[in-house]
Structures are given as structure tokens and as C-alpha cells.
């Protein structure tokens, strides 16, 4: 389930009015707010948060800094958040990989998804099912038929690691259609993208951001399906999930949230939500997200963000159980 991306003009105006009226700070007077990005500098998540930072700073009327704490599939950054006081002065930008899937797949992770609270849904990124450019499968049906043909050697699919969304999505597809494929887990997205573009692995799902679109347009990757209910403006000729009858409930997108520790007081969460909705209403920020391949969320209350986050938790846990995923 992806975050809603449209609301009425009135709702946006109300959000802006509330934000302008509030101007409430979090923590102690003039305390710095730290926004943790659990990824390296220069990536899409980092760029998004650095575009959000000055808007959030104005909305809260206090200094906001972005801190990149990468490593261990984002879990070090999550741990830093959970070790901080639950007063709203430390925030985290994260999706299901760091908050939900890491505790399901990594034995060293001691937190669980419920230790985090979603304040605001920021946006979502579509996924695209791709093959290496010279595989010879030109449509989703052709790929599925090839994967069902046990008389031929098994194809390989790559992912960002065991328990990653790229792993679970393909396992879901395999279960639905009784497909045969060998999993090749990589340590992160970069190496996987390089290898599939170089023809060393056969297929997989990738987020529709960064250089993925360029690799598709160059022919190094062939896009077969966008895992959303509508076609992507970046790849208007690639079918959407709605056009593929063989799969059900396969609308995988990566939802991104601003999160705080569960113990953060409700009043603080509300203050942050009002400020973050000001960011979501900012035209330049929305244009930046759209230009990077993501789609920004509509204004949303903490109760809505929590409902979406819980839906993510339920979905990925159910799928992890179905494929017998165990922490390692």
C-alpha cells in the first residue's frame, strides 16, 4: 500500500495555516533538532532530507541538522534514534527495510518495528521489475513462462540482501506463479545494479530512482512491470500492475516516514506533524521529490501515518513468515 499523494486544496491550505499558527518548538528552547538519514551522503534519501531540512527548520523555528549514520543496512541509524531522548529533537527518515525487515532478517538487531512511531508519511518510491538487457524476455508473461519451464536452466534474481524488499517481492511472485529462480543476495543496491546491468544476474526489482531509468533507456536493463497500480511518468511505455492479470496484491512501493521513538509524547508528535506537513505543502520540495523519481505524500495526520506503517508491518511480516525467513 502506498501513501496517498493527493488531497484537496483546502486541506493543504489548512495544513499551512496550522503550521504558521503553531511555530511551537520541540525539546528545550532553541535546542537543535537532528534528522538522521541511515544512508551515506549523496544518495536519494540524503538528497531528499537535505531539501526538506531548511523548510522544516523554518516551520519549527529552530535549527535542524541532517546527520548521515549509515551501515548495517540502516540499523545503526535506527539504533541512534532509539538511544536518544524521546522528546522530538532526534528524528529518523526510514522505510520498511530499516524499520521492519532488518529485525526480521538480522540476528544482531535488537529492536522491533513497534519501537518506532511514524510521525508523517513523506512519500513513496515505485519499484520496477527488470531483466538484464539481453535476457530475451520482452514482457512479464514471457519472463513468467521462462521461469515456469523446468526443462531449462534456472535463472537468477538479485536483491539487496536476504530479507530486503527486493528479496521478498520476488519470493512473493515466485509463490503466486510457482516460478523457479535462484536468489543471489548482494550487500546493497549498488553492486546489484552494476551486476544486472553487466549481465551477471538475470532479473530483479529495483527502486525507480537514481540511474535505474537511464540504464533502462540505454538498453542495459529491460523494464517489464512497474509494481504500482498506474504507469510511471518516467517510463510511460512500461505496463503497470493493473495491466498484469497474473499477479495479485503485488503493489510494492517503498514508503518513507519521519519517525521518532515510540515513547515520544503525543503533543510533541503533533507539533512535528504540523511542521512536516508544511514541508509537504511546499511546491519546490514536491517538485524535487517528483524529479528524483519519488512521489510525495499528501498532508497526513500522525494517526494516518501510523495506520500506513502498521499496514507495512503486517504485510512484510506475513510475507516473511510465508517464505520462512529467519534472522541470520
Question: How would you briefly describe this protein structure?
Answer:
The chain is built from 11 helices and 10 strands. It has 328 residues and is α/β, with parallel strands linked by helices. The strands form 2 sheets. Strands 1, 2, 3, 4, 7, 8, 9 and 10 form an 8-stranded mixed β-sheet that branches. It has a two-stranded parallel sheet with strand order 5-6.
Structural write-up:
This protein has 328 residues and is of the alpha/beta class. 41% of the residues lie in helices and 20% in strands. The chain contains eleven helices and ten strands. α1 packs across α9, α2 packs across α9 and α4 packs parallel to α11. It is globular, with a radius of gyration of 20 Å.
Describe the biggest sheet? Answer: 8 strands, mixed
* CATH fold type of the largest domain: D-Maltodextrin-Binding Protein, domain 2
- Approximate strand percentage: 15-25%
End-to-end distance: 28 Å
Radius of gyration: 20 Å
Let me know the number of strands: 10
Q: What is the count of helical runs?
A: 11
Helices and strands: which structural class? alpha/beta
- What share of residues is helical? 40-55%
Task: Offer a few descriptive terms.
D-Maltodextrin-Binding Protein, domain 2; 328 residues; two-stranded parallel sheet; globular; 41% helix
